[in-house]
Design brief:
Chain A: InterPro entries: AAA+_ATPase, ABC_SmlMolc_Importer, ABC_transporter-like_ATP-bd, ABC_transporter-like_CS, CysA_C, Mo/tungstate-bd_C_term_dom, P-loop_NTPase, Sulph_transpt1. The complex is a heterodimer of chains A (366) and B (305). With 366 residues, chain A is α+β, with helices and mostly antiparallel strands. Chain A has nine helices and 20 strands. In chain A, helix 2 packs parallel to helix 4. Chain B is an all-alpha fold. The chains are: A alpha+beta (366), B mainly alpha (305).
């Protein structure tokens, strides 16, 4: 079951939560809506579910317009951030709920309900908890039960609103791997909302990066991380160093460094921002062409990597550089030492205030 | 680090009062309670039983007293279900939806708390009385509201209507709407959602509200006194009957009837305490206890003896 979202607009009073958002989710994919809080991702998910009504635009399921279809007729499975399990019902009854509330004509017989519920509980590996109550479960267990409950109605699409947001780091990691495996098993079209970039990159087939009611970029986890389309995506996905500079006739001047920027051939004397990831900077003790001079201010070992804060000589800006622990042990850079920084990969965006990033097409296709 | 280690004993020393202060406070509280609560309570039963069980019993089974008891239960039996429906509807609207005039509605619900019961009674006299707005129309159709049972019920409903709504609003607001949304997404209809999800979630708060509402409905004096007309055997509720007996220097009978009201109040309080205890330990004993406690208030209300 594919989902098409066409030009959805949603306002809450004067605040525009979604501004003409369009998005296609092909059948069987697991898509992450990623963005900071308030970017509209949860609103979009709720509109797809039918819990929120868009002011304009359409939601199509499998090519059929579902915009006016009531939430209970959309056959979606929804998983809430805070589980929303029915507190007064046992785990079994929670999962059975969607089957029990069906009209008598379509309600499966008791024996079949029992069988299906136990099968789902086995799928989420919690069949031994059938008789317990939600309050007796851990957070991770509750969320798995919530997922089983959502799957019980055989949804055509599965929607998850920050499904791991309320869990602690260890459980979260375990559960998202588990979700990925589960999706590979059952292949139901799924959309999940998250503000955690690591989660989106690890779990999703496609990542939709959202900001202020717009879609900034759509792509595979690798694409959005390696080739961010806009300054926002650059900043939101991982650490990044930001340099202010100017660009003219295909060459950017960034903190005294001249970098070819062929995509801005036509630009004349414009302010520019340049982004470099901390791990995309080569450190060297030898001066050379295309290198910035800097002084090491601080060295911080962080597990497998070592982060150095370097004060760049021309501008006095602090630059973060990450190198592997092995490299650090071999070179033993010390604070106070003068080094040369050479960006391996640097992305220039012109006049960011006017958002001159490559103009995003109106209709994003995944 | 050192402050963290040092702080627990420091805190407990500074926040705990010396022994003698604790004991004095407890003694003062106990003395106060004895004087203003236990002694009057005992006095009611002592006075009631002063002339022996025979007189006590006669005072209760005498026709006027029985009529008063019946009317009291009738008023409560109408007012409580009415306020139950109204309270749940109002609390639902206020807790789960945003609409214009929400704060006005919330304030209006509190009106019976703010207004003197006598005023409430007078309002009904002005509206439904012989010279009131609807008086002539009612007289034409041979309907009696004031100085009759309907007026008493109306006054009781008015005075008791905040209890259930007030109890439910904060509870429902705290619970939010996620479970209801989950039910709807799973295909439940509005009714199914209400009976299977909303109601079980608010049942303890609802019972608590019902008990407070019942206790107040049976004990209401002021508003009922204004609209009743004090017709013996017809429009006297138990509190009014007690007053009449007392004014006639029939102390034993007055206190006998008062003791019935007191007993009802005590039962209500006991049930209330039980419910409070239940809500504090809802899991895992909740499912079996739910049915047990569900019966209790029903018995207390429905059984006049």
């Amino acid at each position: 079951m594919s989902i098409e979202i066409r030009n959805i607009t949603k306002r809450f009073g004067a605040y525009t939560a979604l501004d003409e958002v369009s998005l296609d989710v092909p059948a069987g994919e697991l898509v992450a809506l990623l963005g900071p809080s308030g970017c509209g991702k949860t609103t979009l998910l709720r509109i797809v579910a039918g819990m929120e009504r868009p002011d304009a635009g359409q939601v199509l399921f499998h090519g059929e317009d579902a915009t006016d279809r009531h939430v209970r007729e959309r056959q979606v499975g929804f998983v809430f951030q805070h589980y929303a399990l029915f507190q007064h019902m046992s785990v079994f009854e929670n999962v059975a709920f969607g089957l029990r509330v069906r009209p008598r004509a379509t309600r499966p017989p008791e024996a079949e309900i029992r069988e299906r519920v136990m099968k789902l509980l086995a799928l989420v590996q919690l069949d031994w908890l059938a008789g317990r109550y939600p309050a007796q479960l851990s957070g991770g267990q509750r969320q798995r039960i919530a997922l089983a409950r959502a799957l019980a109605v055989e949804p055509r699409v599965l929607l998850l609103d920050e499904p791991f947001g309320a869990l602690d780091t260890q459980v979260r990691k375990e559960l998202r791997r588990w979700l990925r495996r589960l999706h590979d098993e059952i292949h139901v079209t799924s959309v999940f909302v998250t503000h955690d970039q690591e989660e989106a990159l690890e779990v999703a087939d496609r990542v939709v990066v959202m900001n202020r009611g717009h879609i900034e970029q759509i792509g595979t986890p690798d694409e959005v991380y390696e080739h961010p389309a806009t300054p926002f995506v650059y900043q939101f996905l991982g650490n990044v160093n930001l340099f202010h500079g100017r660009v003219h006739a295909g060459v950017a001047d960034v903190g005294g460094l001249r970098v070819p920027s062929p995509e801005h051939d036509a630009v004349e004397h414009a302010a520019a921002l340049a982004y470099v990831r901390p791990h995309d900077i080569e450190l060297s003790r030898q001066p050379g062409g295309g290198a910035l001079r800097g002084t090491v201010a601080e060295v911080r070992p962080l597990g497998p990597i070592v982060r150095l804060e370097v004060i760049a000589a021309p501008t006095g800006e602090t630059v973060e550089v990450e190198i592997t622990r092995e490299r650090y042990q071999a070179e033993t850079f010390r604070s106070g030492e003068v080094l040369y920084l050479r960006p391996r990969q640097l992305r220039v965006f012109v006049n960011p205030a006017a958002n001159a990033a490559p103009e995003p097409a109106r209709d994003f296709a995944i | 680090m050192s402050t963290v280690i040092l702080s627990p004993p420091l805190v407990s020393e500074t926040t705990t009062e010396p022994r003698w202060v604790q004991r004095t406070l407890i003694a003062v509280a106990l003395a106060f309670l004895t004087l203003f609560l236990f002694v009057p309570l005992l006095a009611v039963f002592a006075e009631a039983l002063k002339k022996g069980l025979g007189v006590y019993w006669a005072a209760l089974v005498e026709p006027d007293a029985r009529a008063a008891i019946q009317l009291t239960f009738l008023a409560a039996a109408v007012a409580v279900p009415f306020n139950l429906v109204f309270g749940v509807a109002a609390a639902w609207a206020i807790a789960k939806f945003e609409f214009r005039g929400k704060s006005v509605l919330t304030t209006l619900i509190d009106l019976p708390f703010a207004v003197s019961p006598v005023i409430a009674g007078l309002v009904y006299v002005l509206v439904f009385g012989a010279h009131g707005w609807f008086g002539p129309w009612l007289a034409e159709h041979d309907l009696k509201v004031i100085f009759a049972v309907p007026g008493i019920v109306l006054a009781t409903v008015f005075v008791t209507f905040p209890f259930i709504a007030r109890e439910l609003i904060p509870l429902m607001q705290a619970q939010g709407t996620e479970e209801e949304e989950a039910a709807i997404v799973l295909g439940a209809s509005g009714w199914q959602m209400f009976w299977r999800v909303t109601l079980p979630n608010i049942k303890w708060g609802l019972l608590y509200g019902v008990i407070l509402c019942t206790a107040r409905a049976m004990g209401e004096f002021g508003a009922v006194s204004v609209v009743s007309g004090h017709i013996r055997g017809l429009t006297n509720t138990l509190p009014l009957h007690v007053e009449i007996l007392y004014n006639e220097y029939n102390f034993a009978a007055a206190f006998a009837c008062a003791s019935v009201l007191t007993l009802l109040a005590l039962v209500m309080l006991a049930v209330k305490t039980f419910i409070e205890w239940q809500t504090r330990h809802p899991h895992p004993a909740a499912p079996p206890a739910a049915t047990a406690a569900g019966d209790t208030p029903g018995r207390a209300v429905g059984d006049p003896a």
